[in-house]
Design brief:
By secondary structure, the protein is an alpha+beta fold. The protein contains 16 helices and 20 strands. Strand 4 and strand 5 form a beta hairpin.
Length: 539
Amino acid sequence: MKRVVAYCRVSTDHEDQKNSLENQRLYFEEYVSQHKGWKLVEIYADEGISGTSLKKRNDFNRMYRERLKNKYDIILTKEVCRFARNTVDTLEITRELKKSGIEVKFIIDNISTFDTDGELRLTIMAGMAQDESRRISERVQFGVIQSMKKGVAFGNIIYGYEYTRDPITGKKTKLVVNEKEAKIVNDIFNAYLYEGKGAYTIAKELKEKGVTIKRPRKKEKSTDWRERTILDMLQNVKYIGDLKQRITYTTDFLEHTKKQNKGEVDFIYVENHHKAIIDKKLFEDTQAEIKRRSNIYKHDKSKYTNKHTFSSKLVCACCGMSYVGGENRKRKDGSIRKTWRCYNATKYGKKHIENEQEVGCDNERVNDEVLKAIFMESFKEIIAEKNEIQKDIEIQIKKVVGKCESETQLVDILLGEQQQLKKEEFRLLDLYLKEIIDVETYQNKKQEIVNKLSNINGQLEQQEQKCKLKENIGEIIENAKKVVNNILTLKKFSDNVCKELVDKIIIYNSKKFDVYLKGYETPYIFDDKSNISYLPHWL
């Protein structure tokens, strides 16, 4: 009595393929019943699994392991491509099975591994199956890329958005904002950029507040926030309404190996794909801040701190050199007292003569907390001018919109040129059909027209985007006012706000400073007579 097992596989989990799998089961039962002396022991089946790799084919691997238990004598499979689409795997496995005295029969291909020419024929069929798999993979990839270019979004949904779905097909259609989650997204960006918080701290605070992510990460069961999750969000262009795809790509169709795309293949980028949650300026500033912190980390592997807030902004009044970060002194309570010192003093010490030249500097060290205090005092002056600042912003925005109105004439000109080129295109076709011009002349002239039309269409799109500002002028002004208000209601020192507003601070000594803010010609003067409420108690 020959003990027989069968293996069947379908490559997707669609309903029609599941029906195909059931049909394959019935087929093998009928086939075995037609052979006397055969007994069907088990049918192994994998659903929704590709044949190019053995990694996830659980039943196939179980069948292969059970050869060692002397469970069966013959393996039945309909055709080579059902067994495997990888030539190397097919040959290695069938050879090992043959060593164990196990025959593999490919019914439709009429191949038995026990035939004298079995391996030769199997090699040919396996190679053809592998090549077919390659062609299928390329066709699928081509289809996916074309869909991406049309704006079809692939991959999992991100926090802050939801997919609308076609009521008939159930397929994803477009991204729409989840207003509740969008508020959290805005809070994350503002916490990172304006409050100076790190990704770890933000994730920790969200967890403490009981906020959960939309779904667990692939290899995690937890719905808690992670540092990596926050960093990914802060760099995701979907939040400004754009779509960037092909973040990963498949390097090997056989193993389905995916690799992070670092420029090896072209990204597919679609602007203004959906409604934005984050303003582009906020996003760009966030990217700059991520880069800045990353550069700091390269030099200092400790966690990110605000220690470089005043870098390249401090100028010594005595010698004109920059102040640099000096010693970090530990207080009795364990806190760190950071100081800044003139570069000349750091390098050469006190002022003295060396090699007949005067070197060094006598200017004093300055404590970091003092600098933060005088910035906050300067900031009070800006707050007092808040209304004027908001008015200036409104005026500037209206100027931009005014330019849009003046460009209406340009749009009319472009539309006229567009119509003229379309007429030329029809005339050209008429000349070709009447055989007045040959095919080469027709194709060259037509290409010239197509190029000109493409250029005009691009210009028209730009003008359309610009003039949309007019329609949303009220919303744009209000959003700008909100941003300004968020900054100007600052209650405590912010590293990011300070870096954005401070142009330079001239240091005369440890208690005398001139603070120059960006956009202000007159400095804010501080000396030992200034009443600075923010100054630390130990001064």
